[in-house]
Specification:
Residues 28-159 form the Activator of Hsp90 ATPase homologue 1/2-like C-terminal domain. By secondary structure, this protein is an alpha+beta fold. The protein has 3 helices and 8 strands.
Length: 166
């Protein structure tokens, strides 16, 4: 396992934007699948002890992923993601907002931009998260930062497991 992988997490409060760059010791196709297939997303995209459960996902422009992060006592925190742009294996964008169980959005939301590239078997993922509201970003930032770092560690562990199977 490569321990020299880049991980940068920068918050620009004035721009209401979070910039995340993370490298993974796995091929582009596997990392892309981990971000775009619900059965893989559910294995890493919630910070422990929460777990993710996708109710439905249609990965195409205009499609949606409706999922919940579920606590150990069964409480669900729902979110809806709408895919606004997709370039296979290199880029996709989503609009993300929390919601209730009936998909009624809690606005404002955020815009997520994902870019993928691979060099020498290392896949780099650049994620930009723009928040419509500075207040929303401030409210979420502490929990989001710790939680998102945990989920990326979950992904790293999953990729190791999946790489050993292939």
């Amino acid at each position: 396992m490569n321990s020299n992988l880049l991980f940068d997490f920068t918050v620009d409060k004035a721009a209401k934007t979070v910039f995340i760059t993370r490298e993974f010791d796995a091929g582009l196709s596997l990392v892309w699948d981990a971000f775009t297939k619900p059965e893989l997303l559910d294995q890493w995209s919630a910070p422990a002890p929460m777990r993710a459960k996708t109710k439905y996902m249609n990965f195409e422009v205009g499609g949606k992923r409706f999922y919940a992060m579920i606590s150990p006592d069964g409480q669900a925190r729902w979110a809806l993601q709408r895919y606004t742009s997709i370039t296979p294996k290199t880029h996709f964008q989503i609009y993300n907002a929390f919601s209730d169980k009936d998909e009624n959005l809690e606005l404002p939301g955020s815009e997520w931009d994902y870019n993928f590239s691979e060099q020498d078997g290392i896949t780099k993922v650049n994620i930009t998260v723009f928040n419509e509201s500075f207040e929303r970003m401030e409210k979420l930032l502490d929990g989001f930062t710790a939680g998102f770092k945990m989920t990326l560690k979950n992904l790293e562990d999953l990729l190791v497991t999946l790489s050993q199977k292939s």
